Amino acid sequence: MKINDVLEWIQIAEDDIYSAKYLYEAVRKPFEIICYHCAQAVEKYLKGYLTYSGIIPQKTHNLLLLLELCIEKDNSFENIRTECGLLNKFTNEIRYPYRIEIKEEDVIYSINAVDRIRNIESIKKLIEIFKNRERENNRK
Fold this sequence. Notes:
This protein is mainly alpha-helical. Helix content is about 70%, strand content about 0%. The longest helix is centred in the N-terminal third of the chain and has 22 residues, at about 5-25.
């Protein structure tokens, strides 16, 4: 396991959730893009955890598949199955011509789901490692 690879996944995830929250504060709220960024953030957190656990993540956007791999390593990931299931509908398929209707409550749920996923102990640990690395780099 290369810690730099893990931290890169976490950085991209943090950027995705930051983008989602930023866009939600905009006057014109692009619901589809916000939900997409939420799903992308979760994908990156799960792939970061898998990489940290010594597993090379599959090239997939299927959050439920990634979740199953995480559960094999840490059963506490079972607690976010519902969130991953609902966010899974906002993965890459949302980006193509046949759009699904997204309501503001979907957006709010998506952002809150990412926050719940970020609170899984294994993910919190990786975010803390990432933030510590950022603080060290800023001191240089």
